[in-house]
């Protein structure tokens, strides 16, 4: 299925600022540079620009790469994107859910599962 992220085992968030004008090839190059590895079919890669109101998701499918783009419609809505450095960080599905709902990916008061 085109753009099905639910099959991903790994979720990598590229912290810092990404130039949102980049297309598949530019984002692919960032992954190669920061992770020192080719994007694989078991992972998704998340990118965010300076405005924090839109994200891009890159994923590999058997026959090529897919680029998903989401822009928030909410006035003043922003993703709480980690800006600490320009590196890739592996996050959990729970952290992904927090990020997509406007929360920080680190929730120190959340109950630990597992």
TrEMBL record:
The domain of life for this entry's organism is Bacteria
Enumerate the Pfam families for this protein.
TnpB_IS66
Question: What protein name applies here?
Answer: IS66 family insertion sequence element accessory protein TnpB
């Amino acid at each position: 299925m085109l753009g099905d992220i639910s099959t991903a085992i790994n979720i990598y968030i590229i912290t810092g600022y990404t130039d949102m004008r980049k297309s598949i090839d530019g984002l692919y190059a960032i992954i190669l540079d920061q992770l020192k590895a080719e994007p694989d079919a078991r992972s998704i890669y998340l990118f965010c620009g300076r405005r924090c109101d839109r994200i891009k998701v890159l994923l590999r499918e058997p026959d090529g790469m897919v680029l998903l783009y989401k822009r928030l419609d909410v006035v003043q809505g922003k993703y709480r994107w980690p800006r600490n450095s320009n590196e890739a960080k592996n996050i959990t599905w729970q952290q992904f859910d927090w990020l997509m709902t406007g929360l920080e990916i680190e929730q120190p008061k959340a109950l630990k599962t597992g």
